[in-house]
Specification:
This protein is an alpha/beta fold. It has helices at residues 18-24, 40-60, 73-87, 103-114, 132-138, 161-171, 245-281, 310-316, 337-341, 346-350, 363-396; strands spanning 6-7, 67-70, 94-98, 118-122, 143-147, 174-178, 197-201, 212-216, 287-289, 300-305, 320-321, 352-356. It folds into two domains: 6-12 and 262-396, Aspartate Aminotransferase, domain 1 (Alpha-Beta Complex); 18-258, 3-Layer(aba) Sandwich (Aspartate Aminotransferase, domain 2), CATH 3.40.640.10. It binds 4'-deoxy-4'-aminopyridoxal-5'-phosphate.
């Protein structure tokens, strides 16, 4: 019998914060107007959207005019990458990215390759980092875009965004960052970091699913991209389609809450994460950390347990919602492309678990998870040892 369920998969998604839900509710009923309508209902919806635009902009140090609402980070990434490539086609045909990006970046790059663009996919070090120097060396006079994520969704590694932004500024190349996992969790400032295009998503920061935003630098210098969706000319012609007012209002509120609580929450997440990590590694041997020991998201812990199959471990821990590899790829048997890029061998990649701590996790939950992980890993290792010695007996018999 499962007595309780514990959610520890905050990189896959997060629950809507009650404060966010409360702000959204009237926009389904009394404040239901179409933000493009020119009457009281429309103006009311437009005001709600304007406030959300300010709230999103404030969290990343942008101006509200620089925020375009989308259906989430997948769409923002597609718009940024395909839009920048298309707009820059006369100047060049080269894009720089890196190996541990989410598929929502790698796949648009692949599509562009099929359309005749050239893509350089930089390798990462064993912690999952690229350096600004690597980016500098990859740039050519045909480079139109650099796309490097702020924080990785599997191993939590933070990229040196500020340094990469500086290199791109020097060379006059557009810099896009998929900051889906970073926004609201670590400090991100588009001006200070030299970011031209930034993708974010509401459902990773306690907002609703199916809504996100793309920041597009408006000045010094203005970033130009080509629209990928034609229609009614919403969002300054860059993203046609009736605005998802409830979602946008929720995203705005989620950003506001993150802005107010991010520092304290980060400290708390780091404390819980270290309690979890220390608790597990203090009781089990042959456990390896994936990702950077310091330059990582505060709520992320990705561990490989030698001699244990990650899938079996997940089944054994079924009252705890965790992920082996990325949620998007765990349906396949392929080891995650992220762990592979870090040089983690197939066996250890298959034995990895991703813990994603979030706003609503407690110390009590962490202690429970420590106990259950230690218990399950020990049980599976004993089975594995018994199985191996049986095999050895069979062989010598
Ligand atoms: N980029 C990263 C780094 C992500 O973690 C995710 C979500 N797994 C996405 C993009 C896609 O975001 P969305 O679900 O909003 O399309």
């Amino acid at each position: 019998m499962i007595k309780r369920q514990i959610y520890m998969d905050a990189h896959a998604t997060t629950p809507v914060d009650p404060r966010v839900l409360e702000t959204m509710l009237p926009t389904f009923t009394e404040r239901f107007g179409n933000a493009a309508s020119r009457h009281v209902f429309g103006w009311d919806a437009e005001r709600a959207v304007d406030l959300a635009r300010e709230q999103v902009a404030a969290l990343i140090g942008a101006s509200p005019k620089e925020i375009i609402f989308t259906s989430g980070a997948t769409e923002s990434n597609n718009l940024a990458i395909k839009g920048a490539a298309e707009f820059g086609r006369e100047h060049g045909d080269h894009i720089v990215t890196q190996a541990t990006e989410h598929r929502a970046v790698l796949d648009p790059c692949r599509t562009l390759e099929r359309r005749g663009y050239r893509v350089t996919c930089l390798p990462v070090d064993r912690y999952g980092r690229v350096s600004a120097e690597q980016v500098r060396e990859a740039l050519t006079d045909k480079t139109v875009l650099v796309s490097i994520m702020a924080a990785n969704n599997e191993v939590g590694t933070l990229q040196p965004v500020r340094e990469i932004g500086r290199v791109c500024k020097e060379k006059g190349v557009l810099f896009h960052t998929d900051a889906t996992q970073g926004v609201g969790r670590v400090e991100i400032h588009v001006e200070e970091m030299g970011i031209d295009l930034l993708s974010l998503s509401a459902h990773k920061i306690y907002g609703p699913k199916g809504v996100g935003a793309l920041y597009i630098r408006g000045r010094r210098p203005r970033a130009r991209i080509a629209a990928q969706m034609d229609g009614g000319g919403h969002e300054r012609g860059l993203r046609s389609g009736t605005l998802n007012v409830p979602g946008i209002v929720g995203l705005g509120k989620a950003c506001e809450v993150c802005g107010q609580e991010m520092n304290a929450e980060g400290e708390r997440m780091r404390g819980l994460r270290d309690r979890l990590g220390d608790g597990i590694t203090g009781q089990l041997s042959d456990v390896y950390l994936n990702g950077h020991p310091e330059e990582r998201l505060p709520g992320n812990l990705n561990l490989s347990f030698a001699h244990v199959e990650g899938g079996l471990l997940l089944i054994g821990l079924k009252e705890i919602a965790l992920s082996s590899g990325s949620a998007c790829t765990s349906a396949t048997l392929e080891p995650s492309h992220v762990l592979r890029a870090l040089g983690v061998g197939d066996d250890l990649a298959h034995s990895s678990l991703r813990f994603g701590l979030g706003r609503f996790n407690t110390e009590e939950e962490v202690d429970y998870v420590v106990g259950r992980v230690v218990q399950e890993v020990t049980r599976l290792r004993e089975m594995w040892t018994a199985h191996r010695s049986e095999g050895a007996v069979l062989k010598t018999a």
